[in-house]
Amino acid sequence: MTVETLPYWLVNVPKDEWPASCPDFLVDVDVKDKKMIGTPDAEYHRQTWPEVQQIIKTNRIDLLKRVPSDLRKYLGFTAKLKKEHGSVMEFVLKERLQWTDLTPRGESPFKDPGDLKILYNDWPYGIDKKIVHLVVWTKFDLEDDPATNDLAPKTRRQIEDYVREVFYSRVPAEHVIWFKNWSSLKSVHAIEHFHVMLYDPDMDFVRDVTNGDNPLSESVK
Questions:
Q1: Tens digits of residue pLDDT in 190-211
Q2: In what order do the strands lie in the sheet with 116-120?
Q3: Does pLDDT of 26 surpass 50?
Q4: Each residue of 57-76: pLDDT tens digit?
Q5: Distance separating alpha carbons of residues 50 and 70, to the nearest angstrom
Q6: Which of 139, 144, 149 lies closest to 109 in space, CA to CA?
Q7: What is the DSSP string of the chain?
């Protein structure tokens, strides 16, 4: 079989590991994911830092993609989490964040360090490998503006101030960008978070700000 005639669920899988039928977690994937999973990794174009900046500045977060084989692993891993933990949210809350509740202690957002945690994005997008993708998880709400379905101006200013304080001191401003996913694109609902991407940062700083965290994708085959 050539790649063109392979079922999407066999692409990027070594022949000696081919399953006899389509794995359950790939049966009902949407058309967009099916097309991506059926694309050979060698044909995938990693998005550059300027491309990523443009995507985020124009709020086209839907254009961020994963490497085809990584998308396959991501879907398989999240399906396994749902079976073992009930939901991805429960796994993130208990295993990744190790929080027992989501009640903020601070009088206002970003005031109490215990109300936030910075971790790697466990399943980063297929972007330039010099880009480090982090997630800032919060116990407090990141309020939206009902009129625009986007972040409220006050919330945006608070996040900007936080990113400036935490990241700009160690990473050039032009090498830092952040975004908050649209509700429809969130893989983890009910736990507030926003994303920070750093281009070619000092990895000692990354280890420090994440408390030595490592993305789960590095340990999943």
A1: 799 999 999 999 999 999 999 9
A2: 116-120, 131-138, 192-199, 176-179
A3: yes
A4: 998 988 999 999 999 999 99
A5: 22
A6: 139
A7: --TTTS-GGGTTS-GGG--SS--HHHHT--HHHHHHHTS-GGG--PBPHHHHHHHHHTT-GGG----HHHHHHHHHHHHHHHHHHSSHHHHIIIIIS--S-----SSSTTS-GGGEEEEE-SS--SB-TTEEEEEEEESS---EETTTTEE-HHHHHHHHHHHHHHTTTTS-GGGEEEE---GGG-SS-SSEEEEEEEES--HHHHHHHTTS---GGGG--
User: Could you give the CA distance from residue 199 to residue 177 in angstroms, rounded to a whole number?
Assistant: 9
Q: Please, which residues have CB within 8 angstroms of residue 104's CB and are 6 or more apart in sequence?
A: 112, 115, 138, 139, 140
User: Per this entry, what is the length of the chain?
Assistant: 221
CA separation for the pair 191, 75 (Å, rounded) = 20
User: How, if at all, do strands 116-120 and 192-199 pair?
Assistant: unpaired
Q: What is the pTM of this model?
A: 0.91
Q: Give 90: exposed, middle or buried? Use CB within 10 Å, 0-12, 13-18, 19+.
A: middle
135 and 120 in contact (C-beta within 8 Å)?
yes
